[in-house]
Structure of Phosphomevalonate dehydratase large subunit-like domain-containing protein:
Amino acid sequence: MKQYKMELTDEEKEILEGKHGEVMRKVLESVVLYGEAFEARRLLPIDGPVHLVTSFALTGIESVFDMMDELINAGLKTKEPFTVDPRPIDYDNVECTEAQKKIFNAMYENQEKYEIQLKKLGLKDGNAFTCTCYMPEVGNIPKKGQILSWAESSAVVYANSIIGARTNRMSALIELLCGIIGKVPEFGLVTDEGRRATWLVEVKTSTLPNAQVLGSAIGMKVMEDVPYIVGLDRFLGKGINSATLDYLKDMGAASASNGAVGLYHVENITPEAVEQGRSLLVENYRIYTIDDNEIKRVIDSYPILWKDLNARPTMCFIGCPHLSLEQIYDWVEKISDRLSKAGKDKVSINTVLCAAPDVISKFKLDSEAYKKLVDMGLHLTYICPLMYMSNPECAKQPIVTNSNKLRTYSTARFFLDEDILDIIVNGNI
């Protein structure tokens, strides 16, 4: 057997010697080599749910499909059913031109085949496509302290920070292999030391800052480090409620995409900060102060990638990461109120709210609220807007969003929620 630096159990050595099959040997070897790249000492058992980031069958990654077939033919699957990131296409609810559809159909021509592969490897069910698998309607919810194998950045930071589970920001497909072997390498955010904060972030704004902008500011400053955030409890209160969950979800997603934050602590709010307080800070921590001027500076720093800066927006995406059920209701009410004040019945631009399939289904059960949404000209979809924007024909459009993640990874233009409301009601910036 090849010599490895990592401490291995007798069972792991047997697998690496091929005694459990050649495919299983390759699975474990991949995980071990991945761990050794990060100087992991050993493997730890996974005791929480698995979530995969690769939900799309993009043309050009045929080697992935081949690997999936190899795993399936060997009779392997994850130890527990998994969820996966959103699907890329929804023609029924997201308008596309024929030119855009042609490109989408070419980009994702293997999508149906890939979803069959996912089901054979342990996909939870046909609705299990969302970046917010931890929503109660979806049900793939880890528990505090559980070891996970996740790669989706917004889900990783949510699980680590708000739930107190433990996962590194795994690489795509490595998280699948870890789910099959049932173990992850021990390093980084799964260790006590790796979860200590190296930054003290002081929020000294006059009002509660926009979650997406606050997360952006933190991410761009601390990058992959762990921040300990103080001052938010002045606005959010102590502990966690549904409104706080949604705020931290969006803040974390922005910190993970505008930087690479995989864990944050919020004083008097997130579980480890409540339990351990400022003892989570390392000795020589750095300080970052965020006041009103810093928030403005961050917003002003965002580049605008539209060809025509004065273009009339053609579409608005809300929900990256996916919206919670409460957020859908909130946006419906806010848009309704703004339309009423403007003396209008429908939005002026194509406005799309993105959420998990199970969350959308739950909302549709409220026939009155759903009719209100439809009557205002709004659309609900389960897609990932990032995948929509990856189509070069779609990227040419002047699209607006309140998502800092979507802004970071696409040509979409970011606006604060109040400005988004004005734009979708009046049709102009």
Remarks:
- The first strand starts at residue 43 and ends at 45.
